């Protein structure tokens, strides 16, 4: 490996071109992945995150780094082009460490301004130093970021970071068995900094479920605080209709960036829902109801309804369409209620117990029409069919209630206000 200086401050490498073994630029430095270890051992620099010229981010181990200088970073060997996903126990230098508050062993409170790594063995790098900006407390508890810059060995801030991480780990463990609404309430009660730390440590699926229970302004703030790739992963785990509502609340440029980073199939569902007005059946529906073909038996239909990932509302009805059975489906034939399916022989075809009296909603049906529809048919889920008579989704009663309640009802719920104390400021005539 080419000679390097004894230590390198990583902010100097951010955005540097990355060259492959042939000398061609493949992307630029986006971040470095570190792993904290027991106190007394320096954090290991596992590798770097490269943003390819195609905007995809990948991980490259430090062992692949051939040379580093002020103008470029060169790699050796074959590059794995799979998308980078941050793993549990990994810390991103620029996204997770910079601007983090620490306390030095002599009691100085400061923000991490930069960190330096050093090659300890052949292509084995460790974080050895931190550049800190001392914080100064002024009147009215305002904290300035313009304090004195100073450098310390990493060991002088390691205990402070370990304490923060242990507190976050304890909180994540406490949330592990909670229902999504309870996790959301816990996040709501945290400071913004702690909320972000805990959110970063939660699994994508658990965080996505909790996101859907938070007030809209807190959803936007928390999503914006996450690393962009992680934010896209969380959106992928959310129900498409909830992800669409959140996307619509984001700045256009940020929303487009997230959609571009999502898996194409998940992004397509969201983009499809974005074409409908919010307070319509099309805007409220999920594109993933339970659908079976006309020759499916009742046993096969019930097997799909038993899927634990299907919500109770969605599991109350199965829709029958001609192939394809993904939305937008083939010709819509009708729907069968789960109660009726349970009363009939499993070998019968589900299409023989269709509710002939149930007329589908159109995607442009407004909130008043949708709410009356649910009251008329005593339903918890309703089919939405387009002019080509294709099933394009289904509206569930929880989505209808979500749009009928006051805009700030989730925030009131977080603050402990009971439903009978809520103002009646949105009525459906």
UniProtKB/TrEMBL annotation:
InterPro entries associated with the record: CBS_dom (IPR000644), CBS_dom_sf (IPR046342), Mg_transptr_MgtE_intracell_dom (IPR006668), MgtE_N_sf (IPR038076), MgtE_transporter (IPR006669), PRC-brl_dom (IPR027275), PRC_barrel-like_sf (IPR011033), SH3_actinomycetes (IPR058838)
One function term, GO molecular function aspect: magnesium ion transmembrane transporter activity
Highest taxon listed in the record's lineage: Bacteria
Keywords: CBS domain
One GO cellular component, as annotated: membrane
Residues of the CBS domain: 285-351
Disordered: region residues: 408-429
Descriptive protein name: CBS domain profile
Originating species: Propionibacterium ruminifibrarum
């Amino acid at each position: 490996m080419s000679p390097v200086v004894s230590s390198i401050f990583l902010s100097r490498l951010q955005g540097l071109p990355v060259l492959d073994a042939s000398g061609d630029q493949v992307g630029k430095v986006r971040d470095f992945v570190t792993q904290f270890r027991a106190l007394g051992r320096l954090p290991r620099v596992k590798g770097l995150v490269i943003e390819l010229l195609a905007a995809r981010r990948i991980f490259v181990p430090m062992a692949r780094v051939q040379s580093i200088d002020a103008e470029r970073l060169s790699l050796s060997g074959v590059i794995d082009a799979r998308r980078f996903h941050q793993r549990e126990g990994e810390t991103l230098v620029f996204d997770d460490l910079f601007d983090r508050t620490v306390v030095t062993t002599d009691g100085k409170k400061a923000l991490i301004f930069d960190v330096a790594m050093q090659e300890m063995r052949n292509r084995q790098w460790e974080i050895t130093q931190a550049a800190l900006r001392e914080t100064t407390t002024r009147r009215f508890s305002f904290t300035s970021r313009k304090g004195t810059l100073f450098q310390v060995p990493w060991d002088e801030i390691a205990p402070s970071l370990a304490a923060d991480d242990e507190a976050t780990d304890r909180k994540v463990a406490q949330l592990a068995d909670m229902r999504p609404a309870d996790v959301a309430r816990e996040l709501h009660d945290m400071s913004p900094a702690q909320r972000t730390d805990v959110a970063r440590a939660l699994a994508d699926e658990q965080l996505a479920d909790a996101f859907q229970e938070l007030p809209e302004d807190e959803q936007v703030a928390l999503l914006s605080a996450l690393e962009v790739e992680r934010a896209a992963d969380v959106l992928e785990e959310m129900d498409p209709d909830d992800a669409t509502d959140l996307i619509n609340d984001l700045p256009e440029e940020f929303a487009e960036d997230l959609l571009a980073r999502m898996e194409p199939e998940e992004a397509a569902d969201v983009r499809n829902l974005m074409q409908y007005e919010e307070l319509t059946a099309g805007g409220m529906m999920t594109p993933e109801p339970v659908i079976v073909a006309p020759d499916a038996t009742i046993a096969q239909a019930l097997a799909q309804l038993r899927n634990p990932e299907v919500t109770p509302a969605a599991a109350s009805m199965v829709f029958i369409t001609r192939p394809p059975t993904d939305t937008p489906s083939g010709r819509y034939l009708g729907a069968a209620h789960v109660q009726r399916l349970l009363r009939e022989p499993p070998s019968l075809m589900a299409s023989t117990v269709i509710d002939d009296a149930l007329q589908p909603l159109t995607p442009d049906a407004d909130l008043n029409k949708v709410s009356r529809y649910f009251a008329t048919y005593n339903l918890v889920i309703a089919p939405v069919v387009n002019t080509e008579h294709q099933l394009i989704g289904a509206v569930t009663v929880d989505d209808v209630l979500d749009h009928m309640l006051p805009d700030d009802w989730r925030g009131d719920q977080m603050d402990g206000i009971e439903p009978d104390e809520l103002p009646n400021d949105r009525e459906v005539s």
